[in-house]
Every structure is written in C-alpha cells, then in structure tokens.
UniProtKB/TrEMBL annotation, chain A:
Gene Ontology cellular component annotations, sorted alphabetically: cytosol; eukaryotic translation initiation factor 2B complex
Keywords of this entry: Cytoplasm, Initiation factor, Protein biosynthesis
Binding partners and assembly: Component of the translation initiation factor 2B (eIF2B) complex which is a heterodecamer of two sets of five different subunits: alpha, beta, gamma, delta and epsilon. Subunits alpha, beta and delta comprise a regulatory subcomplex and subunits epsilon and gamma comprise a catalytic subcomplex. Within the complex, the hexameric regulatory complex resides at the center, with the two heterodimeric catalytic subcomplexes bound on opposite sides.
MF terms (GO), sorted A to Z: guanyl-nucleotide exchange factor activity; translation initiation factor activity
Domain of life: Eukaryota
Chain ranges of the Nucleotidyl transferase domain: 5-141
GO process annotations (BP): cytoplasmic translational initiation
Record localization: Cytoplasm, Cytosol
Protein name according to UniProt: Translation initiation factor eIF2B subunit gamma
Encoding gene per record: eif2b3
Phylogenetic lineage: Eukaryota, Metazoa, Chordata, Craniata, Vertebrata
UniProtKB/TrEMBL annotation, chain B:
Main location: cytoplasm
Keyword Cytoplasm on entry: yes
GO cellular component: cytosol; eukaryotic translation initiation factor 2B complex
PANTHER family: TRANSLATION INITIATION FACTOR EIF-2B SUBUNIT EPSILON
Protein name: Translation initiation factor eIF2B subunit epsilon
GO terms assigned for molecular function: guanyl-nucleotide exchange factor activity; translation initiation factor activity; translation initiation factor binding
Organism taxonomic ancestry: Eukaryota, Metazoa, Chordata, Craniata, Vertebrata
Subunit field text: Component of the translation initiation factor 2B (eIF2B) complex which is a heterodecamer of two sets of five different subunits: alpha, beta, gamma, delta and epsilon. Subunits alpha, beta and delta comprise a regulatory subcomplex and subunits epsilon and gamma comprise a catalytic subcomplex. Within the complex, the hexameric regulatory complex resides at the center, with the two heterodimeric catalytic subcomplexes bound on opposite sides.
Family membership: Belongs to the eIF-2B gamma/epsilon subunits family.
Keywords: Cytoplasm, Initiation factor, Protein biosynthesis
Chain ranges passing through the membrane: none
Gene: LOC107567864
Length: 468, 624
C-alpha cells in the first residue's frame, strides 16, 4: 500500500451555520447525495480500497444507515469518532490516529467536490519525493444571488498569495494578505535558487494533501500544531529553505540511500541556470497541482453549496427522476432538475433548475425555480419558490411566495392567513405583521438559539428587523 | 461647416505622422562613472576595442539593424575623439541608412543632463530608443516597439517606457554583478511594479500596494539582465526636465514607480529569450561580452562580418572559433586552441598556446607564451616565456621576458612590465600616477569625489617602483584588488563624500578601535558606538565584513591577553548591525591557517557566541 487515505469529516461547517446547525456538514445533500459521498467516490475512483474517516458520532450513525452510501461505496470505511466538543483541529485529528498510519497519507476534506485527475497530485508527490503535495484550483466566481445576502460580496476579502516556481508546480511561498501588512519579504537566497517566481492570487485550496509519513511523526512531536492548513502547510513551505531542517531528515533507510545515489549519478536536474545539484540539496519539498480547468468546489459556504448543487447533477448518468418518485404526468419537471426517491409531485406543478431531495412532497400548482429542496420537505399548494434553499423537513404553507429565501430545517411557514408565523426549531417565534407571507429578495433566519432575526424586505421601502 | 469637416481629419493626420516618423535613438556615449579607470584616462569607454572593434560601433550597428534612422550621439568625456572616430566611420558616409548627429557638451554630468538637453532642444518627435555607447546587442526591437506603441495608443500617455531585458538567471555568465536587479511585474500586462537593485540586500522587500493593481498573477523575477536598451516616449525627456533631481535611469525608474499613483505613468518590460544584449559596464562584463562575441552569441554581429566596414579588418573564421585577420604569422609549434581572434599583421612566435584570447593589430608575441582569456589591444609587444591569464593589456604596452600576469590584471596604455616579475591577482598598472589630479580629470567628474582609498598611497614617491613593475618597467600601481573593487558604484560614490576626512582607510579605522580595546573594554564599546556610522559606510558588502573580521583577528592574535574581549567586540558590532551573522559565521567557519588562530576560535566565549548566533538565525527563519 503506497498511500493511506484519510478523510476529514468532523468539521462543523462554521461558515454556513444556516445550513449546518442541525445537519452535520458531511450529510448535507448535494445533488441528492450526502456531501461526504463525493470525496469517498473520488478516492474509490482512483482505486483506494480502504479509507480512514475521521468524523463525529452522528455522522457515523448516518454512514451505517444511509442506503445510498452503502450501495455506492464499496471501500472499507475505517470510521474514527472524535468528540465534537473538544474542538480538535485537523492536525490534532491526524495525531489522534497516528497509530493507524503506516505509510504516506492522502488527506482529503469532506467538503471537496472535484473531478480532478487525482494522479496529478500523487505523481508530483512521487516524482519529486516530496514532503507535501497539494491541490489548488482557480477560484470560482459565484454569480447567483445567495439567499440572505444582499448584493454582491465585497471585493475586499483577503486574498491568499501563493508563490510557485516557473514550472508552476513547486510551492515556494504561501501567505494570506492579512499577514502581509508589512509587504512581501523574500530572502535573497530563495530568489537565487528560484529566480523566477510566479505569485498567484485567486486560488482555492482544495484541502487535499499528500503528506509524508515523517510529517505525522513530526506532528506527534510538536503538539502545538493544531491545523493542517493553518499551521502545518505554511510551516512546511517555509521550512523548505531552512538550512537546519535537512539534518533531521538524514536518509537512513536503504531505499533512501539508493535514491540519493541515483540522483547523484543522474544528469537530471529540477532547475536550470546554475550548476548546483538537484533541488539545491534541499530535503524538504512542497509541490502544488493547480487545476486549470475542470470542476473543483469546496462546499464550505452557502454560495458554494448552491453552486455545487447546480453543477453536480450534470455529472451523473443516472436518471434525473428517481424511479421510486411519483411524478404526475400533468406536472412539468425540467430536465435540468433532479427529483430524489420517494418524492411526490402533484399536478400543475413546475420545477426548473432545482433539486428536490428524498421523500419530499410537493402539492399542486407549485412553481419552483433555481432552488434546493432538501429531504422530507412539504410544500403546500400554490407556492412560488425562487432561488431559495429549503432545509430538511420544512413545511411551506399554502400560497407562500419566496424569493431568495433560506428556510431552516424543521421550519414551518404557516399558510396565508391573518398572522403568518415563522417558527424556529429552537422554539422562538417571530410574528410578522404582514397578511401574506411575502418574502422578497432577502430573508435571513439566523438560527441561533440566543436570538432570532427575521429580515423582511417588502416592496422597496420597508425593511423590518425583529429581534426576539 | 468647414470647421466641422476639418476636425476629424486632424487627428487622422496626426496618426499618420506618428506612423511615418522615422525611428530615432539617443545614444549616450559616456558612462558618467570611472569604472574603467585608469584605462579611460586615455580613451573614452565607447572607443575601447571589443574584439578589435570600438564598442560604439556595436551599438550603432545594433541601432541601424533594428531600424533606427536617426541617432543622436551625446558625448562629454573626450568628445573630440568620439567625434573624430564617428566621422571616419561608415556611419557618416552619405550612404548610411542611419543619420548620426554628434552633440557634445562639457556640462553633461549624468544621463539626466543628457535627457534634459534632449527635451530642451526638442530633438525627438516620437518614441525613441535610449542606449549607452557600450551596449552590444542583436535584439530585434520591432516586437517590443509594436507592443509599446499599442500600449500607448490604448492608454494615451500612460506607458512611457519599455525596458528590454534578457534572461540570465543567477549564475549565468553574462549576469552583471552590478545590475543584480529584482523586478516584480504584472503577469499579464508585463507592467513593472517594483524595480530594485539587490546586490547589497539580504532580504527582498515588496510593498503590498504593488499587488493591488487588480491582477491575480504577479511575477517576481531575479533572472533578468538589464540590456540598458529602452524604448522611451518623448515624455521621458520631459519627465527628466520636470524632476531635475533624476540623474540616472535608476532614479527615473524608481521615481516613476513610487509616484505611479500621482503621475500616472507606467513602465513596461519586454524580455527577450533568444536575443543578446548586454552593457559593458565593468571589466568583468568586458571579458564576458568579448568572449560571447567570439563565440558568436551576437550573430550576425561577428568578427568576420566586419560590420564596421573597416579597411583591412576582414578576417577568416575557422574551426573552434579561430579568427585571423590578414598578415598574421604564427610560429612553429604554436597552437590556437579555441575562441581566438588575432588582428592584422600580428606576429606570434614559436610554441605558444593561445585560447579564449583577443589580440589586436600589429602586435609582436614572442616564443613560449601562454595566453588564456587575455585581451591584448594594438601594438603590444610581449616577449618570450610570458604567461597571461584573464587580463587586459592596452595599446603600446611592453611585457618583457618571463612576466606572469595573474587573473584580472590591467596594464593600461604604454606601460612596460618586467622582466621576470609575477604580478599578483588584480594588479592595475598605469602610466598615470594614482594621485595625479589632471584638469581633464575634473572635466568628467565632480572634482571632490576623489577616492579616499587612494589617499594612503600619497606618501609614495613619484618614481616607478621596480618591485611593482620590474627592473625595466614603467608604470604606477593602482589600488590592488579584484576588478570589481577597483571600480566603485555610482551609489557608493555619493556615500564616500560623507566620510569624516580623518578616517582614511579601513585598516586605519580598525586600528583606532582596537587601540581602544587595548585601553579598556568599556571605552571600546563606547568608541564602537561612536564610530558605528563610519563602520557602516565601510562595511557594506559581505567581503567587507570578512576583511573587517580578518583585521580584527590579526590584532587580537598579537594580544593574547585580550582574547576575552573579542566576543564583546563582536557582540557589540553585531548589535550595532555593523556585522551580520552570516559574515561572522563565514569567518568562523573559514579554515584558519595558523595554530594560534585556531586556538582563538576555540575560545569558550567565542564558541558560546557562535552558538547563540546560530540559534538566533534559526529562530529568525522561523519567524518569517
């Protein structure tokens, strides 16, 4: 076995709390599959037979019950549970499972949806005997309006600066703009070794890493490192040019010595210009594969979640309407939509560019466009839903008109009446003083038990804020 | 109605004018520095022969072949010589496609003065090329020119200059040590965002504001050689007029980049991969460019092409890049191994070995002579059994029997050396005494910038020292050091002026401090603090640091009782940022030659200090 796969699926999804406050991130449905299916499928496609999954109790339970996962995933899953409360970082998690790690590892995050040729990353790792190789892709611009967000996202977000050498493979530098107030500083010796450095911004780190076994040992010795992306990777990138690191990494095994000899005898070199030995004698090397084309999403924000749901169904070959779903002939389901198993779709309903999850019921004369309906949702007659996300087990009352809304799971939107009541799962209620529940452009439920905010924008002038 | 009809036609006419403008060039035939001293005391740099042709001819050939139709040659130092040379050359014949105007003035002190004069005289009408008289190049500028024009038509007057660079990464032979530039550029638009000379820097710093240009791809390049060829718009001359403090091109580029937001001017770059372009800015570059020319990197400008169309200069090219002009005679058993160019009517004796060498016209070379990387100009006499390695021998020099020239020697005009003397590495001999202050000297340089380093020689009598030049020799020895050191940088020059006059040399100033060490430790650290600015001025390059440490070691070796003080001196020098850890580590790790200095290095305190330094370095690396 060359590589052991480790799947990190214990993240809370803190950047999309609206969706994840009672559905764990790995189980969020994307194209009617739980999110975790995608990295598992990625690994299975390239021939992994076993994967270590680090996750929480809740997800573990779902993994053993979810039919789709059971039938689709043939790999042996070695599930390791960690407590949710302990706030473990990804590096902590690796330290936690160090006993199981026997070889070099491939670490994948559970929110990665990509069609990358994984061998590209692994080949870099093999070819250069690298300590780290990782995957990046061009950042996607999300064009769709996101529920609960008014206008476009501000451009002032902090960019990541990634420095690669002229081949675009060797990772030389990595920093966030926030840490660079003083400006970019390189030691001249680095520039001497890599006289042409490309600095790229606008790259998305896919959180997929090949790591040497020795890095896990390093983590065991350095307990202060808690996160792979936040601390370990920047550390490794920096250490490439430190003179001292080579000493720890003395080649001990016979294989290493042979490799060393082979490199000395060969005329191959990784750089041009000067005549020094390959890699300038450095023992620690980091590489990155930057996807120029193809799909790569990290489902860690609402925008990415919606975008992924739009794009992913096109990749499947299975029929858009699940055989077990009941769809009446007088309804209209666009070919760009998918309908999950056990759904019921009634007459005179039209569904376009939307995903409808398992066991959802959609009554008559409902119009759904550009929306994501999760599992077990009931939508009563005459609703008009556009660009919205309806979470698990929500009930949408009769005649609701929603545009770019996010309805939290278990929500119940009362039918057209004198007082429409939006119920939060935590038991807090908000009374809106409108006669008809007219959600336009933006409605936000910040579903935090401490306070519940409902913002309604009706017509153009009134913006109401209710705090409970 | 007539007015209306007239309006649209006018800009069209202007466009046409722009297209039809003949390409102009400004050639600065003066270097405004003394890198080639003492050679340039007798001949301006532009006229020095490179592969037996004056450098300015290479520049003019490059300009003509790239389509320049009008060239303004600006001369200052020995302007009459340059003018005379040009009048005799093919450039001033009526058939020349490139009209050459010579403009001379004694008042030019810098590139800035020249360009201000260009502006004052309104010589240029459109985009022009700006080159120095010592640029050797075969780059085809047309693509860069087109890009430049395109940029200017897209954004009127935003891009003012396109600089031409050649790829030559660190370690490349043609990389010029003085032009150790680092550039940050926009990956797509090729706009220069940051331009810095890096030779004295350990860390390279890029301010964040350069990354706010809206692009998502930047390139930091340390693999470029400035060809000193730039395409300028007429605005460049105007900008020099507006900013009278701009002296050099470096000032201009830095000033423009820093004030980009205010002035709204941009500088772009063009990188050539195949072309050759380099400026002969010092003797090392002279060596490199000469050998590149002979190795045909500057094709089609090759020695046998006789592009300057000089009479009798035609030569044959044979295997291993051996070129021979007419009338060359070669003695029995002599070998021309490779990359050799021999001028007309030169006679070479028997059993000589010649490689990588240029020999001028009418030279006489004796028997059993070994020449490697030697640049021998015209009418030189070399007697038997002479060995020359990587040296420049100017016109009319006589090298007598049994002389050995080690690397990087320079024998300026009319010098006589020998017999039977070995010149150490980096010897510079000239008929001009180092201290002589000619009036002509002041013509070119600000009169008060005399090199302080030379002053120590003042006590020397004005007679030829047989120990330096041999018993029959004629010439004075100039400051002995490597080629690079003989010629100080423009940058350094201005700093020399600030040094307190009583401190006349490195050695002297260490003696002051170390005398203090003898007195008491306390005084010394105070003295050190007091003199810190002085030290900082002297100790800039890594080599200076080593020299400094070596002289300190010398003093301490003589005074064994004070060894304990060494650490304290080192420590305070380190804290005052006079010495850097790298320098100290290098000195420490350097193989010590004598037992005593080894003993010194085993000193407990010193070991501890070194260990502390190592740790400090490690942690600073981690901080990054």
């Amino acid at each position: 076995m060359e590589l052991q796969a480790v799947l990190m699926a214990a993240g809370g999804g803190s950047r999309m709390m609206d969706l994840t406050y009672n559905t764990p991130k790995p189980l969020l449905p994307v194209g009617n599959r739980p999110l975790i299916w995608y990295p598992l499928n990625l690994l299975e496609r390239v021939g992994f037979e076993e994967v270590i999954v680090i996750t929480t109790k809740e997800v573990q339970k779902a993994l053993s019950t979810d039919q789709r996962l059971k039938t689709d995933v043939k790999m042996r899953l070695d599930v390791v549970c960690i407590q949710e409360e302990t706030d473990m970082g990804t590096a902590d998690a690796l330290r936690h499972i160090q006993q199981k790690i026997k070889t070099d590892i491939l670490v994948v995050s559970c929110d990665l949806i990509t069609d990358v040729a994984l061998h590209e990353v692994v080949d870099l790792f093999r070819a250069h005997n690298a300590t780290l190789s990782m995957l990046m892709s061009k950042v996607h611009e999300f064009t769709d309006t996101v529920p609960g967000q008014k206008g476009k996202k501000k451009a002032g977000e902090q960019r990541d600066f990634v420095g690669v050498d002229v081949t675009g493979k060797r990772l030389l530098f990595m920093a966030n703009e926030a840490d660079l107030e003083e400006g970019l500083v390189f030691r001249k010796s680095i520039m001497r070794k890599h006289p042409r450095m490309l600095i790229k911004t606008g790259l998305l780190d896919a959180h997929l890493y090949c790591l040497k076994r020795s890095v896990v040992d390093f983590l065991v010795h350095n307990k202060s490192v808690t996160s792979i992306r936040g601390e370990l990777v920047p550390y490794l990138v920096r250490k490439q040019f430190s003179k001292m690191f080579g000493v720890h990494n003395k080649c001990t095994s016979k294989e290493e010595a042979l490799l060393q000899l082979a490199r000395e005898r060969s005329c191959w070199n990784d750089h041009r210009g000067d005549m020094s030995e390959a890699y300038h004698g450095g023992k620690l090397r980091c590489y990155v594969h930057i996807m120029e084309e193809g799909m790569c999403y990290r489902v860690n924000t609402l925008a990415a979640y919606i975008e992924a749901n739009r794009v992913v169904p096109k990749l499947f070959e299975d029929p858009p309407i699940h055989p077990t779903a009941v769809v009446t002939e007088r309804s209209l389901v666009g070919s760009d939509s998918i309908i999950g198993p056990y759904c019921q779709i009634s007459d005179k309903t039209s569904i376009k560019r939307s995903n409808v999850g398992t066991s959802s019921t959609i009554k008559e004369k409902v119009k759904i466009t550009n929306s994501i309906i999760m599992n077990g949702v009931t939508i009563e007659e005459g609703c008009n839903i556009q660009g919205s996300v309806i979470c698990n087990n929500a009930v949408i009352g009769r005649g609701a008109d929603m545009k770019y809304c996010l309805v939290g799971s278990g929500q119940c939107i009362e039918p057209e009446g004198e007082n429409a009541v939006v119920q939060c799962s935590s038991g807090y209620t908000t009374h809106t003083k409108t006669h008809t529940l007219h959600f336009c452009s933006s409605v936000v439920f910040v579903l935090n038990p401490a306070f519940c905010v409902c913002v309604c924008v009706h017509s153009l002038a009134h913006v109401c804020l209710f705090f409970v | 109605m007539a007015g209306k009809a007239g309006k649209p036609s006018r800009p069209r006419k202007a466009d046409k004018d722009e297209e039809e403008q003949p390409l102009q060039a400004v050639l600065v035939a003066d270097s405004f520095n003394r890198r080639f001293f003492p050679i340039t005391k007798d001949q301006p740099r532009a006229l020095l022969p490179l592969a037996n042709v004056s450098m300015i001819d290479y520049t003019l050939e490059f300009l003509t072949s790239t389509g320049v139709q009008e060239t303004f040659v600006f001369c200052c130092w020995m302007a009459s010589k340059i003018k005379e040379h040009l009048q005799k050359s093919k450039w001033c014949r009526p058939t020349s496609p490139n009209v050459v105007h010579v403009i001379t003035s004694d008042l030019y002190r810098s590139l800035g003065d020249v360009l201000r004069d260009v502006d004052a005289k309104t010589l240029v009408r459109s985009d022009f090329l700006l080159v120095y008289g010592d640029v050797v190049s075969n780059i085809d500028i047309s693509q860069a020119l087109q890009e430049h024009k395109q940029r200017r038509s897209m954004d009127k007057n935003v891009s003012v200059m396109t600089m031409i660079f050649k790829e030559s990464p660190p370690g490349h032979k043609t990389r010029c040590e003085d032009d150790d530039i680092i550039i940050a550029m926009d990956g797509k638009s090729k706009r220069i965002l940051h331009y810095q000379r890096a030779q004295a820097l350990k860390r390279l710093h890029f301010p964040m504001n350069i990354f706010h240009s809206g692009s998502d791809e930047f390139e930091i390049r340390f693999d470029l050689l400035d060809c000193h060829i730039s395409i300028c718009s007429p605005q460049v001359a105007e900008l020099f007029t507006d900013n009278f403090d701009y002296q050099t091109k470096n000032d201009f580029v830095r000033g423009l980049l820093v004030n980009e937001e205010i002035l709204g001017n941009q500088i772009h770059m063009h990188v050539t991969k195949d072309g050759y372009g380099a400026r002969v800015s010092n003797l090392l570059m002279y060596d490199t460019v000469s050998s590149d020319t002979i190795r045909r990197w500057v094709y089609p400008i090759t020695p046998e092409a006789n592009f300057a169309d000089l009479e009798g200069q035609s030569c044959t090219h044979s295997r291993h890049n051996v070129y021979r002009e007419t009338g060359v005679s070669l003695g029995h058993g002599s070998q021309m191994e490779e990359n050799v160019l021999i001028g007309r009517n030169t006679m070479i004796g028997a059993n000589c070995t010649i490689s990588n060498t240029v020999i001028g016209a009418n030279c006489v070379i004796g028997d059993n002579v070994t020449l490697d990387r030697a640049y021998i100009w015209n009418r030189v006499h070399i007697a038997d059994d002479v060995k020359v390695k990587q040296s420049v021998i100017c016109d009319n020099v006589e090298v007598k029997h049994g002389v050995v020239l080690n690397e990087q020697c320079v024998l300026a005009y009319n010098v006589v050396v020998g017999p039977d003397i070995t010149l150490p590495e980096g010897t510079v001999l000239s008929m001009h005494h180092p201290d002589e202050e000619d009036d002509e000297d002041d013509d070119e340089f600000l009169s008060d910038d005399n090199d302080v380093g030379y002053r120590k020689d003042k006590t020397k009598l004005k007679v030829f020292n047989p120990a330096e030049v041999g018993s029959e020799g004629k010439g004075y020895r100039w400051k002995t050091s490597s080629l690079e050191d003989t010629e100080e940088d423009e940058l350094a020059e201005c700093i020399w002026g600030e040094i307190p006059p009583e401190v006349s040399s490195n050695i002297c100033c260490f003696d002051v401090v170390l005398l203090g060490v003898e007195q008491s430790l306390y005084v010394s650290s105070q003295l050190l603090k007091k003199w810190a600015p002085v030290f900082k001025n002297y100790v800039k390059r890594p080599q200076d640091q080593l020299d400094c440490l070596a002289s300190m070691e010398e003093v301490f070796l003589e005074r064994e009782t004070h060894w304990a003080a060494l650490v304290k001196v080192l420590m305070s020098m380190y804290q005052l940022e006079i010495l850097e850890e790298e320098g100290i580590m290098h000195w420490f790790n350097q193989g010590s030659t004598t037992d005593k200095s080894q003993q010194l290095r085993r000193n407990q305190g010193l070991l501890k200090f070194i260990q502390w330094l190592q740790e400090a370095e490690e942690s600073s690396e981690e901080d990054e």
